[in-house]
Amino acid sequence: MNSKFLSGQDIVNMETQKRAAFVNSLTGFKSASLIGTIDNNEKTNLSIFSSVTHLGSNPALVGFISRPNLTERHTLDNILETKYYTINHINKQIFKKAHQTSARYPKNISEFEATGLTPEFISGMIAPYVKESHIKYGMEFMESHELKINNTILVIGKVIEVIVPESCLMKDGSINIEEAETITIAGLDSYHTTKRLAKLSYAKTDKPTIEID
Amino acid sequence: MNSKFLSGQDIVNMETQKRAAFVNSLTGFKSASLIGTIDNNEKTNLSIFSSVTHLGSNPALVGFISRPNLTERHTLDNILETKYYTINHINKQIFKKAHQTSARYPKNISEFEATGLTPEFISGMIAPYVKESHIKYGMEFMESHELKINNTILVIGKVIEVIVPESCLMKDGSINIEEAETITIAGLDSYHTTKRLAKLSYAKTDKPTIEID
User: For labeling, which of A4, A199, B95, B112 is most exposed (least CB within 10 Å)?
Assistant: First the structure.
């Protein structure tokens, strides 16, 4: 493949929308999640995020990045108000509706109603799950960090419950998220299914990596 | 799909390795990157990370999570020492070698030599790139945040240069990372290629989402 070299200045010089598309593509494939929240007046909210990231397994901590802008602040406002939220994997049946939640709906419009996704209330969780999502988990807000360098906010929560297809729970503890039809996002607007190349053995310095399963 | 409900206590009760596999699967598909560094004695280091995340486009900021443990600290130590590092996409030709960098090699062994990946020095960047990687970018360290809740460290850097296949640069500014053969990771050890479902139009409240391209 013929390579192109771009300097930092080349990136600075890009037109705003192109730069956003370029830099958002740079970090590789991203998780595709819908975050469900509710406010104290029981108004629900649903928004797509591609920054949901594993922070630790014991305790089970998950973070996401909230931009300091209007669209995504409904999610953060609700989380700070009620302390609970749900994270729902996006699958190939619902990715268009999921993408549509990124439109700038006013606070009094629930993205559930606007997109036709179904709010689902499970166990005692006050925040809505997405019924159409196959893997979903309930979160309790722990802490947030403002990243002063660009005013984005890292929101950290603890996993307090998980709903997962029984057939996707593997013997080693992992979840077969491909089997659950979870998809992945590239850049700002590109949605992809996956095909497993291999599952690899735990890497040791004195043994070659082998395929397992 | 038949669903299984797991409580927070069910997760706490899991055996350590199974819990790690479970919680690492929970956040969906992840970016697959090799981070290249060098120390002041010109010893190179290469390590796989699945937590590389877009933090902002202007300035172009990218973060990753460094666990407070032995294996991954070589990367962070080198970054703090020299301030520069490279992030290299993992493709299907090199994913086994990339996985092998997660073995706990001692500091005096370079994962480049141990795995057979080729260090490449481009422009003035002091940290090594991975020659076999198709999309790669040079980073300048900006700041780190210790997340007190579990002592992991969020490392933030600025993108200072990018090398990308010319044929993968799209008119809208995005990079076709699937065309560049970038892969994605599920959980701790599962590697996946992708297939694009669709690229969707910018979501508006008064228009339906449509496929573009």
Answer: A4
